[in-house]
Design goal:
By secondary structure, the chain is mainly alpha-helical. It has two domains: about 50 residues; about 30 residues, no CATH class. It contains three helices and no strands. The chain is rod-shaped.
Length: about 80
């Protein structure tokens, strides 16, 4: 079973695989291995969903709680 990585991790892997592949001058099994890894990583990267960035580095649950607290504060205020 293949492990799923974040988009940033796939981007770093692709850069490193490409650098290693470019440093291998003579076609060999090792170069073919990295060419295959580059293809697989590119495909996995294309399937990654865009990362959602919330305010102040919050995760989805924290941001939802923040929005709810903000909405409750506005609803409870006496303007």
């Amino acid at each position: 079973m293949k492990q799923e990585f974040s988009k940033a991790t796939y981007e770093l892997l692709l850069i490193n695989y490409t650098n290693i592949n470019n440093s291998l001058r003579v076609p060999c099994a090792e170069k073919q291995k990295f060419e295959k890894l580059i293809e697989e990583t590119t495909l996995a990267l294309s399937k990654c969903l865009p990362e959602i960035k919330y305010k102040d580095g919050m995760n989805a649950m924290q941001y939802a709680q923040y929005l709810a607290a903000e909405a409750n504060g506005k609803a409870n205020s006496t303007d």
